Amino acid sequence: MADLERANKYQEENRIEKSKKPVFHVAPPVGWMNDPNGFSIFQGKVHLFYQYHPYSDAWGPMHWGHYVSEDFVEWKELPAALAPDTGYDAAGCFSGSAIGAEEGHMLIYTGVMEKEGADGKKEMVQQQCLAVGDGICYKKVPENPVIPAERLPEGFSRKDFRDPKVWRENETYYLAAGNKNAQQDGQVVLFESKDLRAWRYLSVLADNQGKYGKMWECPDFFSLGQKYVLLVSPQDMQADGKEFHNGNQAIALIGEYDRQNYHLQEEQVVSLDYGTDFYAPQTLETEDGRRIMVAWMQSWDMNIKPEEQKWNGMMTVPRQLELRNNILYQRPVKELEHYYTEEVVYIDREISGSCQLPGVQGRVLDLSIELKEGSYQEFAVFFAQNEKYHISFRYVRAAQSIEFDRTYSGMVRDAVCQRSMRIKKTEGNLKLRFLLDRFSVELFVNDGMQTFTSTFYTPLDAEDIVFVCDGKVKLNIKKYTIAMDKEL
Ligand code: FRU
After folding, report:
1. Mind listing the pLDDT tens digit for each residue in 386-439?
2. By CB count within 10 A, which of 95, 257, 258, 287 is most buried?
3. How many CB atoms lie within 10 A of CB 311?
4. Is there a catalytic annotation at residue 461?
5. Domain termination residue (choose one: 332, 360, 375)
């Protein structure tokens, strides 16, 4: 049986029940998922592919799994689109992107293969490949690899050359890919093409100048507001104060685009997320001009899922990006509101000591809290709580920090459980918006000026939410349960 057929048969026969998975976050039908791939709109539908190894809950030979959606919230599973079944991708169909063209839905991905080097030793080579499809079935083109590794300038790495992101400007296609220079520093290389098959090397779009980790993975480049934004996911990042605590950490470089030299003149570099589980984000632009980002909600370093869980990896909620006053904001797509039920509102509710509020509980919800006046040092919210378990977010007023703790979430291994984030905006009321979906929490601070994303796999019947204040604080609270129609 052909590899792709075998993967799809396995998916059909081993699909995991919905009740064991998140409700509105994408997770694999079975097995392993990492990076979002080919996030694009084709014939009016949102397509989301992903790095996929159906056969186990660990990374393995990479396939491309596939989901489709009308609204970024409710996703329909499709058959896997690519399998590592051809010489040039025999060691994996790694990450890439997609674009709609006259010919069809074009997937550009990294084919990984083993090749004999000059010294006779086997080494990995990464090259960019093309597949064309109709939104369901995809065929690799005979011209592959369309960007062979030799197309790179002398000295650039041929074994770290991956994760192409393609876009079109007028009649020209551009492609940005992750790479390493001769000093082994991360960089993004840029190519152009008229037909997605013949590509010409243009430039180094940006490089890490010895800062910001080593290899740069999964680039994405687009204009936002008055500026240009380059998303990259550096490996081997070093922490700096409270920034960059994940070894694999997604960042955004924001600046001006020098089109003459095809170079990004960076003006600021920011963390995209402060939690433990956020990597390899990718974006698309909707027909109404919104820039939407989705990321892998998992970490290479801390795999904390329970042994018996046969799926591994989720995607974040798709988030709209905006640049206002040179600050990058993220917020969940507005379509999520169509799935709101059970509204509960409290205005000027005073909290002192520890309390639960009628109607505020559950593991699948959107909860906004605004902290108003009060005299207190610390305020905390506990989620997924019962007598045994909880996770918590603690706001420490003097330090202007938020302290996350999942020590008591039911983890059986000693992984990173605590993470601290410094709040950038200190004037005005603090606003916290939490999205919970069974095994994850995404916190949007001050309208999405900063975000914090983490996973936890606490048993699902732990669903209390507890507010704790060491003095007195007045809160405005709004809570919605999120439900898919068929589950109501
Ligand atoms: C990022 C990454 C990519 C690569 C893929 C392999 O998480 O390492 O650079 O294409 O995962 O699965």
Report:
1. 999 999 999 999 999 999 999 999 987 778 889 999 999 878 999 999 999 999
2. 95
3. 21
4. no
5. 332
